[in-house]
């Protein structure tokens, strides 16, 4: 790979002890024989050689996927590689100490954003337990990245992954920047139209390159709705690697050879690869300058 991306906005981090037996049980249904990939700070740093910056966050998916990491792991990675990593906290609103953990992550650990997976924690975006989270994030200019889309995990209510549920929250909290991961697949049209309508809603293309036909249709739809300027590059590492994600984007039109189907433009590809979340996800306050 020769093309370099500016930022990978979706990088997962955990240590070996954070991977529970449930992970292997869940993955066996869809990718038999695969072991949990490494996602420690050193592994991430080596993988991110072809990006300038990487936004990293832990997962608290213990009872759905079988990975239960923590914000301290994220903060330690940022402390070790501050020129490469920008850390996001994870919120699990089921916990009675959710807000205490969030305040600690932002104000003590100095993490710069938040990740939440409604489908993985079984908590809808409209759940009242998220109200203090939204209010805190909006007040403190903290962006919220959300897993939007389906998952292989059996214990994950699928409707909670639909991008259509983002719109009412975006309308209520107009100064809260919300980022829909994975283009809301397979409901990518919902993701695109919500992002198009709501100025504070963005989206990103992590974990899409290994489904090239779906990925192609997503990008064509984004071009036709003219929202490419709101799409950011990401991998979902370690579930997808940087090189394969870049190559998958740049080679998306290869499958169209011999057809008259519309092409994803090189301008679209370049804008996604060089997209800069730090210029858009914080209101006039670039976390890289702090």
UniProtKB/TrEMBL annotation:
SUPFAM superfamilies, alphabetized: Metallo-dependent hydrolases
For this chain, one GO molecular function annotation is: hydrolase activity
Entry-linked InterPro entries: ACMSD, Amidohydro-rel, Metal_Hydrolase
The record's CDD domains line, in alphabetical order, gives:
metallo-dependent_hydrolases
Keyword terms: Lyase
Keyword field contains Lyase: yes
Q: Which Pfam families match?
A: Amidohydro_2
* Domain of life, per lineage: Bacteria
Domain Amidohydrolase-related span(s) in chain numbering? 7-256
Protein name, entry field? Amidohydrolase-related domain-containing protein
